[in-house]
Amino acid sequence: MILPIYAYGQPVLRKKAEDIDAQYPELNNLIDNMFETMYDSNGIGLAAPQIGLSIRLFIVDGSEIEDINPQGFKEVFINPVIEEEFGKEWDFEEGCLSIPDVRAHVKRKGELRIRYFDRNWNENVKTFDGMAARIIQHEYDHIDGILFTDRISPLKRNMLKRRMEGISQGRVNVEYKMKFPKR
Ligand code: ZN
Description:
This protein is of the alpha+beta class. It is built from three helices and seven strands, in the order βαβββββααβ. The protein has helices at residues 27-40, 130-143, 154-168, and strands at residues 5-6, 45-47, 57-61, 74-94, 104-117, 123-129, 178-179. The strands form two sheets. Strands 2-3-4-5-6 form a five-stranded antiparallel β-sheet, sandwiched between helices. The model has no long low-confidence stretch (mean pLDDT 95). It binds zinc ion. Zinc ion is lined by residues 96-98, 138, 142.
């Protein structure tokens, strides 16, 4: 089932999300719906707050991205903890399904080590770099209530201000289903 994506301005995008346990109702179903929703909107990552749930869960699928080598970087991250970020900072133009038509350069560290449970509740500790690390950092920010536009220069943020206000008021053309803040 395709779920509506919560738009910039929705309070849930600003909350620090909570851990879940294996008893969380219909978790498998939820994860399937998140993948369906992400593919429908051509995303490469989706965090639970973006579908209105303040829980520490996100999914990624960067299989289509050429410089991600491990065959099919498709993963579910439950209760993740980034244990360390390291390596050289690099700059990349990011976007976000919750903030359509807005792109901006964000600097992030090149590598990270993350501990998380996968959808079978196996605990993993893995190291990622390049685009895989970048996607994880962006999604991980979501479960802490942080958006990529928080990490851009004040000048650039100011330039984007009106467009972002427009999004929060539903003034945006978007191909996928979104849920805008109540006015
Ligand atoms: Zn995002």
